[in-house]
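INFO batch 0412 | record 1 of 1 | parsing
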Amino acid sequence: MGTQEGYASVDGKRTPLDEGTVPITDRGFLYGDSVYEVFRTYSGVPFLGAEHWQRLLRSASLIQLRISDSMQELHAEVARTIAAWHKNGGTGDAYVRYTYTRGGGPINLYPAPDLLPLRVIIVKTIPEWPAHHYSEGLTLAIPSVRRNPINALNPFIKGGNYLNNVLGVLEARELGAEDCLMLNQKQYLTEASNSNVLFVIDETVQTPSVESGILSGLTKGIVSELCMSAGISFNETLLSVNDIRSATECFVTSTTREIVPVKSLRLEDGTLIRFPMGGGSITRMLRSSYKDYVNRYGQENIDSCLF
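INFO prediction complete | emitting tokens
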């Protein structure tokens, strides 16, 4: 990988991305004992930077991980890492992923209380999702793999253990889809492998609630605001497969994907629910409104620019 692809900072040591290393006894590597966030920049401005930081702190609290950094300290190191990347061939806006692990120590499930957390920052080119995802739509399938229960490993925690999601998307690919839509143990819809899923049912945008066992998505939160501004009802609730059989539109949301229409959903019984190619009228309106929101955010938060 060339240095233009990305740069890493491991506790302040900045290197090309493929040269970054962590100790093999680090608990993030050994056990997925870590929390992380991803944001992207628009014209150098960290989009929802404060909101991502607050969500990281919430995740850290839920796994009893103490973070000594402030957001300002984190963003200062992100800025230095982006500068190193730009100096070595990187250009433009950046995908930023920052992780705090519980640190390294004895190979033992019980974490010693004196462990020092390790901070890893990755900056790289923003992913280019396939153009057909936006012009036509994403394909989803419901796998037999169920989402982690809230009382086992709460999906509300944005943690480093993603094996549940990996198994879900692997099965979805075997079923001929591009991503999964996972059910929980009670047969309610949850989320895709790394994005929230929303439906339009009876002219209302409906999406699984946190009680279903999902990550509270920041992009989904913006969609809620956009719906309110447009006079469209927005409802977070428990959704069953039967509830969505009458859905007329479906889309997914995430930080890097923004809003992506879904063109089909394969149910466990093999039934294929089809949605409008490229998204229906509400999905298209929300995509346009989201771009306007991003532009306003950049103008209002220019002082937080990282480069």
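INFO post-check: The CA atoms of residues 225 and 231 lie 10 Å apart.
INFO record closed
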